[in-house]
């Protein structure tokens, strides 16, 4: 009786296994790598027709065969005017004969027009569809995203890949914010803080004091400054210095290069920030609440110009003390420019509201509804302290007057 | 533990905002008195599950009624959890695979575990549980680089009331565990030494799972901020997608999902067991055909909820309005009445 029961169970188990083999081979809905077109960059511009967007998709196609390098990728960039991002995928699929694969997307470029009109709706696809990751970078461009993604770079790299590489190296210079989609969504969720995105542009030889060999066909990309948004609408741009001020105030400076002159404008110091920390404190000055920024930076002096005589050790120490004061002044000026911009725009891209909320939530509740009006005259104090750790491999100067 | 780590962050942040993570552990601790009550009933009624105990304590009629409710609630919830397997996979990594395959694959595994008995199920859980812990720890630690500074501050700016409401939404998680305990009781040892060991295990299980779930909620709020944490359906899956190791390793969410499937299988199996035990106790329906019938019901329920958003709101409804009130009232009432009757008998003697 027991044996017969076992046989019955074994038959059922065998049946289940056959059903599994038939229906669960694990390849349902599979897509071979060769059928995919990895999406590297996407650009959003306003379309010509109302309610449409011009979506530019930069797809990579790995180069086949030998040659210079198997890792090189060919550019396949398409622009389509559509009402939704999904529609763009369909149209590109029709043209490219490969399925655009979203999981490889590195950069979203927002054109000026789309940024001014608002772009939350069009990036909804990027945060909703499961193939995307929230780690992709968001950047702005003055002009059209389509133009930026279609330029040919002198080193042959895809513009989207080049922007991604710039972003990944951003911490080395700390001159622009690196904003990932996830961070942008968190910031707009905070409601009081205005998002900020870095600005990417092309640069011609001779512009901004940069020259390069024009004989080689192509252009160069330049990331400088940033755009301030109210929600998802671009309001204004920050200059390079204002953006640097933002980086200091946001405690985003890891390493950056910094140049200054002594107070007589005779000696210049070039240096690198080794470490920086910005702290925040609320102060109460006779019932008036304000925010105190305390910036501490450690700098190494790598370049001293304009010293015309050999200095004794005490004189060198004195000069480095002057350098500290001058560096602090530069940082202070950059921060003040950024604060001025915040007050002028009445937009809290510095996240001061959040800082108040973190430190004194009951006070924040009394002002949060009129916060944008209050930004213009909200008391802010800056205290910048710089310490020069060393002056490189030598003291004094190699130049002498005698 | 089951799959509580998947929705916990969204649930607590919707109620308590950035402070939501604080309520996870206290809400789980509610499981300790309930677990101890169940074990106290075990020592009073050895080798009987709580449905049998209910019939003894409340009488046949009420006992059967409780048994039917128990079967309906756990059966319905088990079917919804089976539906959640399809929903998770379809949403996150395999959108083109027919949803029925996820149901079928899972139910076969669940049926096999149930058919093999409680010991095989326990061994399966013993193997999978460390993997779940490891995957959770990896997922959370590899997300540290994505943390948004300052999102957790200010602490308790909205007071403690939102946390209380958040706690009410987490409490059903431990009540699911108590429902399973109510059924497995008949298989547990009954001598005093081992009941003492079981009591310690209740404490350990509640604290371990409570702390882990608290860290899951804490990390998600730290990475996404309270607003986004509430909005994201399965935050842990999104977190898994964001894992990058040194810009070279990415897209490892599928590995995590494999482990989460293991967790789901454990939870669905637990509910299949509760239904099977319930049928056996209340209606004396036992054997292979009834196990297959319950699996078919699970499949039917899952197919009834292929719309993900409806499924999620139904799971939340069953948790908050069926499992929580039913379990809290039943266990408390049963334990209280059993003690009262015991006291009366002692006084009577």
From TrEMBL, chain A:
Pfam families: Spore_GerAC, Spore_GerAC_N. Transmembrane segments: none annotated. It comes from the Bacteria. Residues 30-201 form the Spore germination protein N-terminal domain. One of its GO terms (biological process) is spore germination. The keyword Transferase does not apply. It is found in: Membrane. Residues 225-392 form the Spore germination GerAC-like C-terminal domain. Signal peptide: none annotated. The keyword Membrane applies. Keywords: Germination, Lipoprotein, Membrane, Palmitate, Signal. One of its GO terms (cellular component) is membrane. It is a lipid-anchor. InterPro entries: GerAC_N (IPR057336), Spore_GerAC-like (IPR008844), Spore_GerAC-like_C (IPR046953), Spore_GerAC_C_sf (IPR038501). Belongs to the GerABKC lipoprotein family. This is Spore germination protein A3. It comes from Desulfosporosinus acididurans.
TrEMBL record, chain B:
It is a multi-pass membrane protein. GO terms for cellular component: membrane. Its main location: membrane. Pfam families: Spore_permease. It is found in: Membrane. The keyword Transmembrane applies. Keywords: Germination, Membrane, Transmembrane, Transmembrane helix, Transport. InterPro entries: Spore_GerAB. The chain crosses the membrane at residues 20-42, 62-81, 93-114, 126-144, 164-190, 202-227, 255-278, 290-310, 322-340. One of its GO terms (biological process) is spore germination. The keyword rRNA-binding does not apply. Belongs to the amino acid-polyamine-organocation (APC) superfamily. Spore germination protein (SGP) (TC 2.A.3.9) family. This is Spore germination protein YndE. The gene is yndE_3.
């Amino acid at each position: 009786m027991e044996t017969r029961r076992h046989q019955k169970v074994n038959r059922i188990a065998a049946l289940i296994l056959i059903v599994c083999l038939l229906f669960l081979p694990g390849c349902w809905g599979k897509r071979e790598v060769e059928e995919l077109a990895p999406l590297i960059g996407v650009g959003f511009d306003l379309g010509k027709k109302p309610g449409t967007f011009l979506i530019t998709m930069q797809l990579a196609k790995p180069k086949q065969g030998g040659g210079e390098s198997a890792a090189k990728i060919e550019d396949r960039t398409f622009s389509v005017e559509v009402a939704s991002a999904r529609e763009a995928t369909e149209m590109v699929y029709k043209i490219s004969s490969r399925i655009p694969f979203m999981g490889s997307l590195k950069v979203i470029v927002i054109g000026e027009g789309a940024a001014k009109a608002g772009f939350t709706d069009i990036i909804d696809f990027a945060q909703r569809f499961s193939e995307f990751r929230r780690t992709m970078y968001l950047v702005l461009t003055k002009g059209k995203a389509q133009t930026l993604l279609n330029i040919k770079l002198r080193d042959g790299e895809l513009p989207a890949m080049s922007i991604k590489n710039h972003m990944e190296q951003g911490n080395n210079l700390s001159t622009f914010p690196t904003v990932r989609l996830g961070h942008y969504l968190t910031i707009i969720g905070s409601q009081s803080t205005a998002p900020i995105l870095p600005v990417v542009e092309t640069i011609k030889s001779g512009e901004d004091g940069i020259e390069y060999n024009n004989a080689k066909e192509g252009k160069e990309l330049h990331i400088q400054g940033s755009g301030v948004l109210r929600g998802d609408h671009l309001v204004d741009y920050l200059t390079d210095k204002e953006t640097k001020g933002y980086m200091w105030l946001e405690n985003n400076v890891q390493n950056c290069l910094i140049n200054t002159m002594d107070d007589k404008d005779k000696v210049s110091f070039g240096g690198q920030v080794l470490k920086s920390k910005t702290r925040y404190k609320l102060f109460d000055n006779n019932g008036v609440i304000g925010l105190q920024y305390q910036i501490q930076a450690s700098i190494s002096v790598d370049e001293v110009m304009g010293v015309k005589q050999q200095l004794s050790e005490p004189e060198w120490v004195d000069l480095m003390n002057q350098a500290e004061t001058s560096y602090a002044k530069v940082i202070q000026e950059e921060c003040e420019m950024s604060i001025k911009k915040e007050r002028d725009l009445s937009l809290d891209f510095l996240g001061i509201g959040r800082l108040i909320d973190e430190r004194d939530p009951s006070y924040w509740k009394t002002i949060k509804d009129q916060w944008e009006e209050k930004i213009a005259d909200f008391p802010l104090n800056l205290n910048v302290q710089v310490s020069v750790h060393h002056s490189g491999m030598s003291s004094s100067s190699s130049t002498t007057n005698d | 533990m089951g799959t509580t780590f998947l929705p916990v962050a969204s649930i607590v942040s919707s109620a308590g905002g950035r402070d939501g993570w604080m309520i996870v552990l206290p809400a789980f601790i509610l499981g300790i008195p309930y677990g101890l009550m169940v074990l106290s009933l075990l020592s009073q009624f050895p080798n009987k599950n709580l449905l049998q105990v209910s019939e003894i304590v409340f009488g046949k009629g009420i006992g059967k009624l409780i048994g039917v409710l128990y079967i309906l609630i756990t059966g319905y919830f088990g079917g919804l959890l089976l539906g959640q397997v399809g929903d998770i996979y379809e949403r996150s990594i395999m959108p083109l695979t027919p949803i029925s395959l996820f149901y079928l694959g899972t139910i076969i595994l669940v049926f096999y575990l149930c058919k093999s008995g409680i010991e095989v199920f326990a061994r399966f859980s013993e193997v999978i549980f460390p993997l779940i812990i490891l995957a959770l720890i990896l997922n959370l630690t590899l997300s540290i680089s994505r943390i948004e500074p300052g999102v957790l501050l200010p602490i308790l700016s909205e007071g403690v009331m939102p946390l209380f409401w958040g706690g009410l939404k987490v409490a059903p998680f431990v009540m699911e565990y108590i429902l399973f305990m109510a059924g497995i009781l008949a298989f547990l040892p009954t001598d005093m030494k081992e009941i003492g060991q079981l009591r310690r295990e209740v404490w350990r299980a509640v604290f371990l799972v409570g702390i882990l779930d608290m860290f899951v909620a804490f990390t998600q709020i730290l990475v996404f901020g309270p607003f986004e944490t509430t909005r994201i359906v399965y935050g842990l899956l999104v977190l898994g997608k964001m894992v990058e190791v040194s810009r070279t390793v990415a897209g490892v969410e599928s590995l995590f999902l494999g482990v989460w499937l293991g967790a789901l299988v454990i939870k669905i199996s637990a509910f299949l067991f509760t239904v099977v035990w319930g049928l056996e106790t209340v209606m004396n329906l036992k054997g292979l055909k009834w196990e297959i019938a319950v699996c078919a019901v699970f499949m039917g329920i899952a197919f009834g909820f292929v719309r993900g958003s409806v499924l999620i709101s139904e799971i939340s409804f069953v948790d908050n309005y069926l499992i929580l009130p039913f379990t809290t009232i039943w266990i408390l009432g049963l334990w209280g009445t059993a003690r009262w009757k015991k006291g009366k008998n002692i006084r009577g003697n």
